[in-house]
User: What shape does this take?
Amino acid sequence: MMSDGLPGDKRKLQTSRYSEEFVPKNGKILKNSADQMDCGAENLARKEFTFSVCGDPDNIQYAFTGDPDDGLITALNSSCDFEEKVRVDSTILVYGEGGLKGLVNVDILCRYLPPHTHFRLLFLRCPGPGREGAGGELRRPPATRHDCRHVLFYVEPSGRTVVNTAQRIVLSDRIAQGQTKLCVLGFEGQTVRQALTADGRFDPRVHDDTHKLLEKVEPPRKIQFNHAVDGLNGRSFQVEMSSYKKKLPGDDGSGGKNWKPRAGKVAEALPPSDSGRYPLPRWHVEARKAALLRFKLAVSRNAELGNMSERQYLNRLHQEAQSPIPARAIRRVIERLASVGCLSWQTPSAQGGGSCFFLRDRYLLTSYHAVEMMVGNTTPPDSWPAAVHDAGQVFFGYEEDGQKGRPLKLAAWLEIFDQALDYAVLELEESPPGLQGLAEHCALLPPDAGNLYIAGHPDGQVKKVCPCSLMTCDQQRAAGDSANLLENLRTAIAGGDAENYLPDIVMVASHAFNRARYPNTILYKADFHHAASGSPIFNADGLVVGLHCGGEIHKKNKDPERFCVELGRSIKLIVHNMACKSDSLATEKSKQFIKDLQSSFK
Assistant: This one.
């Protein structure tokens, strides 16, 4: 898989390099709210640590230091000794020894680690092409308030039921097979369940207040999951799983076993988020689910036309996406990457991110649902422009870890957008210096476009490029015959009917993966559809043909083969929709922008 599209130091491990194993089985990313809590540091000076490498016959200990606000993996990356041990295809497990025991989350901030802690590092190979990306959560440094005490306690990777049946409670195969306890970070006032949820390594089945922590002392002690972690520092536990299940919305009393939400009720069935981020809008969740259903039908039909199985058809698309990238495509796409930006926002109650790209003058294009998440679900519509200005900023130079460059503020302006097509135009307070606008490098997507390339900031991390194999593109919609389509989409959204939520561009991403081939190895993926909405979709000529609006994981029954499905809107359809809106817009400024955009569109 193409990584950042630019040369750079590939020897450094990225944050959450092994996070594929920490993805829930339903394909959703667990958010790490611990990094977002307002918790302070006990010591602002750099902390000193040592590490050694498992399997080193000399057992040499290497010293390294880290700033309090550095993640552990960032501090390790700053060590030349660490760099010498790392291969580009490696990932890492970190075991604490001495005062801090157990398997440590590589994203824990150094401020929460006891000074002079020793770590033993286990490097694991990440096999297969296209798996070198760093999936996982969007992380930001914690706020600088210093009024929150932290707690470190330990939890075994295997739980038990009340009848002593063993239960796997972690997402990683490698961790589940081991006996090492996990070191969990919690904060004063936080419950046990919130701490385990924020950790990101535990299976969603533990996210329930009805479970307990079992401490194996004399006499044994049990602590409810809704109990605060304040007094747990340094103590070790096993999770005792409750047989009680909370009723889901609409449960008929059967414990939710056979309950399935209707399309219009998908969002209500989703568990509430503890991450501090605004949840995805209900209509967008429904859109992705419905698009995945349509994708499955298209796979079945196309496979049948080709006289092959669905697996064979998907594997062919996957192989096409992983085929060698033509030098011409690399050169053309790289020319446009500087104009792709990382959109981020932070409010007193939440934070998040997405992607965007520079069109012309001071204007950006991104996804509507990203803007909706930015302003929050309690902000009235007439206050959206001010909320965008207060919360949002854009980084165009974020191509290396920790080097985002100068942030550019968003102006208090929001007039051109469409919920059905999931796009929004934003304005910067100043023109980004030295960037070429991509409005003059847009084109209609032809049926024989070949591979496509999504460029953006998945999970709010460094800029990456993901090759994809085009599966379908609705040419009738993309050609501009959109009046009935848009009306149907808006009606479906208003009525909670997801049947018509089919994006125009459907792609199979190069980072599809298969567990069955490597049953004893940790595998990785970087799902491009998490926090990458708003990314441009390029063709092999480096022209923007679409706007990335989300994605889903396709998995059939118990088949271990999974495919990452990326979804997008045709840029031609978006520009056509803007033109249709022009007469109804309130300001001459917006009308002039659309006129200029149309004139530059090829």
